[in-house]
Design the sequence.
């Protein structure tokens, strides 16, 4: 008799939302994005203090869809800021949870993924995992060196998204991922461009802390001396400067919006300022793709684009025109929820072995 497909509950906390989903094997039973008002979250005073609130929201979503917690076989959360690890699926353990709760390697909403998943799994003694956390670090030795020995480059990027679409692109090419050289570009509120050499991300911009292209809401790389003068002249605190870099820069700072759909509408209507800034945005991404082509010594099987920004027809047309000389371009819209569920399913069915953190 055929065994029923394992039920997998996926938990993916973001800055102002908690995405949850229930899968039966590879089939989605439901997905929900639970939005949280910024004011409500700020009232907690810190991300870790939001755990109970977000956990209850996840439980309410299960109840709303008639699903029972005790019927779930496997839990998987989005991986947070951990010590550098290689890509893969990791069993959640006490060491991992302690580091996430203490924000040992940084504070981010994704830290709550494993914490909430582990709490729910423990109630019925079920398995719990994370997959391809943002701290995946497969940088080559030469890519790790920056302009100062006390400030080495770090690998923090959309690893889950990168790895998922890279696997799909490799399948399109009729190759194994570990046999491909790919440039993967995640285009959302943050933009990360990675050089994937035979299954390892050997170089990638640190999209959270100011490397690489500017984005819908992040400044990206800027000249350091003018930035230091700006911070001094504006009397910005450390927290204010961090907010400027990560949430108040990019298209939002230039145009007052981070909505690329609205920007493309303005460009189509003939707004010259919007057109120029949007061109600069695309130009900065194209340059980063070129840099990753150099990291792969020009041997690139494909450029893979994913994320909400790539839905813009103008964006895609202009970016294609600038980088198609490097390699064929594939657009693969991937769901982080599907990627997490697939990772959990691979372990549950014995196709992959979970790593130990």
Sequence:
């Amino acid at each position: 008799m055929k065994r029923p497909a394992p039920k997998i509950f996926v938990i993916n906390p973001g800055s102002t939302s908690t995405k949850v989903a229930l899968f039966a094997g590879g089939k989605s039973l439901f997905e929900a994005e639970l939005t949280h008002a910024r004011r409500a979250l700020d009232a907690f005073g810190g991300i870790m203090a939001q755990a109970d609130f977000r956990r209850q929201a996840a439980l309410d979503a299960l109840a709303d869809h008639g699903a029972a917690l005790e019927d779930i076989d496997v839990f998987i959360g989005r991986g947070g800021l951990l010590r550098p690890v290689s890509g893969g699926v990791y069993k959640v353990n006490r060491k991992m949870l302690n580091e996430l709760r203490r924000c040992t390697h940084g504070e981010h909403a994704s830290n709550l993924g494993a914490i909430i998943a582990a709490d729910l799994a423990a109630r019925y003694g079920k398995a719990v995992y994370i997959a391809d956390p943002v701290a995946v670090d497969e940088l080559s030795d030469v890519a790790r060196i920056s302009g100062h020995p006390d400030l080495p480059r770090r690998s923090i990027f959309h690893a889950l998204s990168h790895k998922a679409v890279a696997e799909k692109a490799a399948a399109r090419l009729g190759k194994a991922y570990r046999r491909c050289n790919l440039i993967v570009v995640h285009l959302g509120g943050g933009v990360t461009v990675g050089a994937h050499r035979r299954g390892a991300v050997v170089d990638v911009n640190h999209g959270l802390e100011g490397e690489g292209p500017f984005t819908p809401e992040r400044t990206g790389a800027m000249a350091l001396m003018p930035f230091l003068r700006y911070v001094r002249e504006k009397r910005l605190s450390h927290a204010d400067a961090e907010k400027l870099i990560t949430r108040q820069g990019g298209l939002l700072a230039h145009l007052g919006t981070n909505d690329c759909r609205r920007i493309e509408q303005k460009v189509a209507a003939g707004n010259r300022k919007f057109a120029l800034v949007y061109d600069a945005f695309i130009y900065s991404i194209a340059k980063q793709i070129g840099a990753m082509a150099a990291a792969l010594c020009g041997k690139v099987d494909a450029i893979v684009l994913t994320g909400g920004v790539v839905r813009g027809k103008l964006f895609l047309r202009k970016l294609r025109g600038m980088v198609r000389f490097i390699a064929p371009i594939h657009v693969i819209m991937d769901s982080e929820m599907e990627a997490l569920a697939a990772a959990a399913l691979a372990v549950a069915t014995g196709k992959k072995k979970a790593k130990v953190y």
